[in-house]
């Protein structure tokens, strides 16, 4: 989704998803410090999910990315297990709104912080865009 959002690839681009398929042992580390179509990705907050997780730091990092005009890739624990979402805005009351797509179906979550807190933390991916994009 980030590659499409940044217009690095066409809207109908699914090459990476096709390669990935339903891989069950994959994680953000597979993309950490790697560049795809000119966009570099970075894994952050790959830490134990427990009471010592730096929740405030995570939320501040997400907020900073949003303020800079970027989105944030986030792993969220939902009813079916862990899924990948894109945090795309902060609401006036301070909550983050995230979405995920599966084919033509879009799931929108308006309680991202609440989900992260219930999970005792999560990891995110940020990205950098070259100046020419």
Number of β-strand runs: 7
Structural class comes to alpha+beta
Major sheet attributes: 7 strands, antiparallel
The tally of domains stands at: 1
Strand order of the largest sheet: 1-2-7-3-4-5-6
CATH 2nd-level architecture: Alpha-Beta Complex
Order of helices and strands: HHEEHEEEEHE
Overall shape = globular
Low-pLDDT stretches are none
- Give the helix tally: 4
* CATH topology group: Cathepsin B, Chain A
User: End-to-end distance, in Å?
Assistant: 16 Å
Quick take:
The protein is α+β, with helices and mostly antiparallel strands and 133 residues long. The protein has 4 helices and 7 strands. It has helices at 2-5, 15-20, 55-67, 112-118, and strands spanning 34-36, 39-44, 72-78, 81-90, 96-102, 105-109, 124-128.
Commentary on this structure:
- The structure is a single chain.
- The chain is α+β, with helices and mostly antiparallel strands.
- The protein has a single domain, classed as Cathepsin B, Chain A.
- 23% of the residues lie in helices and 32% in strands.
- The protein starts with a helix and ends in a 5-residue tail after the last strand.
- The mean pLDDT is 90.
Which keywords apply here?
133 residues; alpha+beta; 4 helices; 7 strands; globular
Write the layout of secondary structure elements.
Layout: H1 2-5, H2 15-20, E1 34-36, E2 39-44, H3 55-67, E3 72-78, E4 81-90, E5 96-102, E6 105-109, H4 112-118, E7 124-128
Antiparallel strand pairs: 1-2, 2-7, 3-4, 3-7, 4-5, 5-6
């Amino acid at each position: 989704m980030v590659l499409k959002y940044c217009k690095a690839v066409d809207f109908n681009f699914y090459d990476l998803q096709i390669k990935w398929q339903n891989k069950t042992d994959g994680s953000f580390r597979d993309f950490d410090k790697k560049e795809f179509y000119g966009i570099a990705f970075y894994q952050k907050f790959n830490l134990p999910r427990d009471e010592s997780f730096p929740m405030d730091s995570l939320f501040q990092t997400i907020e900073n990315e949003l303020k800079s005009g970027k989105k944030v890739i986030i792993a969220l624990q939902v009813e079916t297990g862990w899924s990948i979402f894109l945090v795309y805005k902060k609401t006036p009351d301070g909550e983050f709104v995230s979405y995920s797509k599966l084919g033509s179906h879009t799931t929108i979550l308006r309680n991202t912080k609440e989900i992260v807190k219930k999970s005792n933390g999560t990891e995110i991916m940020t990205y950098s865009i070259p100046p020419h994009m």
